[in-house]
Amino acid sequence: MADHRSPATVAVHAGRPPHEADEPLNTPITMASTFVAGGDREYGRYGNPTWQAFEEALGALEGGSALAFSSGLAAVSTVLDLVGQGMKVVAPRHAYNGTVLQLADLEARGRITTELVDVADTDAVVAACQDAALVWLESPTNPALEIADIETIATAARDAGAHVVVDNTFATPLLQKPLELGADIVVHSATKYLAGHSDVLLGAIVVADPELLGVLKGRRDLIGAVPGTFEAWLALRGMRTLHLRVERAQANAAELARRLAEHPAIGEVRYPGFGAIVSVVVAQGALAADLFTHGTALWVHATSLGGVESTLERRRRWKGEPTTIPEGLVRLSVGIEDVEDLWADLAQALDTIP
Ligand SMILES: *Cc1c(COP(=O)(O)O)cnc(C)c1O
């Protein structure tokens, strides 16, 4: 659905009922396992008006057509399921843990082969595309925050006959629109910024090509990783303030990245210059990083990201995290609180490191 208004306006208005007498302003939560026969929906696994409202809004923001899924990883597995038997997937060496684990699982079972790349090394990614069926990108990557040149990679992939997927969870469609840059498929964990309040699990796929949309919808119908109606409603409600949340969180993140870079306990700050995720490497390593993550009062020690509240965690506390991620790396998901309160809490927690 092409919408030429500003993304801020689209986020507020897309996916609403028509402006007609007695229509509600918000699409209601439709609880229905089945629908009266003869229409497009028929059954609750094939469609739901509340999902559809969410899908319209996300599709309008990304410049394509969206399908909602029960979680981000359900969307990821639906896309990976399209890869033909024994075909090659190019993927980031650093990426969302669940995606990395799915790729490894598919490879271990002989379903696909994978080639892991540094997405910031464009020449290496372009070379890897040549015999690939699918190129999976995250940009920025989790949690190293490397940036891929999506446009150049998408052009090379197209020439090589490979499809390009971009997990746009970190950037959101407000900061990056992969379909406009030549990607074929966008996936989202709507659990994060789109819903934005750490209270819902939801995923989505967005594509521009109607044929591909039909194929993916067919997979969703068949596999059944469909969202709950309340979850879709909550995510849509969250998306109404996406532009405000992203703007504020990004401004906070840029300021905190600047201050953290000057702190003696911090060896390295990784901030790509946009978005609201900042990764820092605590100079003294894992134990010092644990003191830091356990020493905050306002920041919540928790995994996940993209909520209104600021959270942080040391990534290597997870067994599956690649060993190329430093032991002392702490990922901060910067929220929308007052930046001085956020800084004061980080500074006092860093001061607990001897
Ligand atoms: C969280 C996340 C996912 C997985 O989404 P779920 O909703 O947790 O299943 C995928 N990709 C990225 C980048 C994420 O942050």
Summarize the structure.
This protein is an alpha/beta fold. It contains twelve helices and twelve strands.
- Proportion of β residues? 15-25%
Mean pLDDT: 97
**CATH topology call of the largest domain:** Aspartate Aminotransferase, domain 2
Element order: H for helix, E for strand: HHEHEHEHEHEHEEHHHEEHEEEH
Fourth-tier CATH superfamily name of the largest domain: Type I PLP-dependent aspartate aminotransferase-like (Major domain)
The tally of strands reads 12
Distance between the termini: 56 Å
Describe the structure.
This protein has 354 residues and is α/β, with parallel strands linked by helices. The protein has 2 domains: 7-239, Aspartate Aminotransferase, domain 2 (3-Layer(aba) Sandwich), CATH 3.40.640; 243-351, Aspartate Aminotransferase, domain 1 (Alpha-Beta Complex), CATH 3.90.1150. Helices cover 37% and strands 16% of the residues. It has 12 helices and 12 strands. The chain has helices spanning 7-13, 49-62, 72-80, 97-108, 122-129, 150-160, 172-175, 210-223, 229-239, 242-261, 286-294, 339-350, and strands at residues 65-69, 88-92, 113-117, 134-138, 163-167, 185-189, 203-207, 266-270, 277-282, 300-301, 311-314, 329-333. It has a 7-stranded mixed β-sheet, sandwiched between helices. It has a 5-stranded mixed β-sheet with strand order 8-9-12-11-10, with helices on one face. Strand 4 (134-138), helix 6 (150-160) and strand 5 (163-167) form a beta-alpha-beta unit. The longest helix is centred in the last third of the chain and has 20 residues, at 242-261. The N and C termini lie far apart (56 Å). Pyridoxal-5'-phosphate (PLP) binds at residues 71-73, 96, 98-99, 138, 142, 167, 169-170, 189, 191-192, 201, 203. Pyridoxal-5'-phosphate binds at residues 71-73, 96, 98-99, 138, 142, 167, 169-170, 189, 191-192, 201, 203.
